[in-house]
Design goal:
It is built from 2 helices and 3 strands; from the N terminus they run βαβαβ. The chain has one domain (7-64): Ribosomal protein L30/L7 (Ribosomal Protein L30, Chain: A). The chain is of the alpha+beta class. It is elongated. It has a 3-stranded antiparallel β-sheet, with no helix packed on it.
Length: 65
Amino acid sequence: MAAAKKTLTVVQIGSENRKSPGMRETIRGLGLGRIHSTRVLEDTPAVRGMITKVRHLVRIEGEGK
């Protein structure tokens, strides 16, 4: 039986305008790009690190199974 993968719902709440190129690339890497855009992502250390880098631009809405 396969284990259920944990997911995170990430919402962009801030603009990537006037941010460093690294932050813009991180937002794009998370699959976001416009304010209020939402993605459901697998909860992995890599995704958590990306969220931490742009934590002032995104919000985690739900942590699901």
